[in-house]
Amino acid sequence: MTTPTGMDTNTDTPAVNVSHLVKRYGDMVALDYFDLDVKAGEIFGLLGPNGSGKTTAINCILALLTYDSGTIRVFGEPITPGSYALKRRIGIVPQNVAVFNELTVIENIDYFCSLYVPRRAEREPLVEEAIDFVGLGEFRKYRPGKLSGGLLRRLNIACGIAHKPDLIFFDEPTVAVDPQSRNAILEGIQRLNRSGATVIYTSHYMEEVEQICDRILIMDHGRHLALGTAEELKGMIDTGERISVETLDLSDETLHRIQQLGFVIDAVYDGRELAVRCRHGDHNLVDLLGILRESGAGIGHLTSRPPTLNDVFLELTGTALRD
């Protein structure tokens, strides 16, 4: 894809700026003075458990919902339901596939592109480029019912990007697709970003977020909890590495000694494996192995892994990121 048209050349202007946004549904506060800044040209991850306010925030940014107070600016301009020129610069790839089963692949892409580009002569090359971009050339005359789940997701993406938006929202674009299609989708998103598009990405798959996102915001209960790169977020939590040791003869006394180590957050033994969650430290594994050797416990397979975004999410929100 070539560079999106209408791109703001001032990269200091945020692609999206949300300030002190409040949205209530009766007595329920869906967004509680929520803040968000997305830099032009980045892939920005927006994470939160179900009910955290992600969808409400996105719908407010798209001017699909009214809100009680706060401000929203897209590429430096306030966005309203009538901001048609601004909305022309936005693309949306929803979680639920939104295509017409009665239309073919090329007809679907042409229809959605026509919502932004009414002149057929201008639209035709854009539609062809979108088909090539998602690799659906040989399926152009297929109806959606004949496509696999992965190909259907690619069609969904093509419908959202054919008009070459400067800002693209991807909401769970890889749900229920095979690994090959997932990789193709993620690579496509990165290509769109390299061509100049700003991307806001939501997913329940933490490894995807870590793989493609420049910065990540974690929200819950309508509030901004933490923002940073994946590594910066991992540095914000108490959890460091997790160590697992296979052993069949760990005594209660040794387990207690391990639990008393200053760097140990918790240690659990199920009769076959010792699982230790540690704080950040340089000698955690060495100190743990020292106690195991002193006790005479037999040591089998051993693993040590650094904290993940799942650990960050669990510690900050108290819940795992779930579908």
TrEMBL record:
SUPFAM superfamilies: P-loop containing nucleoside triphosphate hydrolases
Keyword ATP-binding: yes
Gene3D superfamilies: P-loop containing nucleotide triphosphate hydrolases (3.40.50.300)
Alphabetical keyword list: ATP-binding, Nucleotide-binding, Transport
Pfam families (UniProt xref): ABC_tran (PF00005), DrrA1-3_C (PF13732)
InterPro entries in alphabetical order: AAA+_ATPase, ABC_transporter-like_ATP-bd, DrrA1/2-like_C, P-loop_NTPase
Entry keyword annotation includes Glycoprotein: no
GO function term, MF aspect, one: ATP binding
Domain called ABC transporter: residue spans: 16-246
Protein name: ABC transporter ATP-binding protein
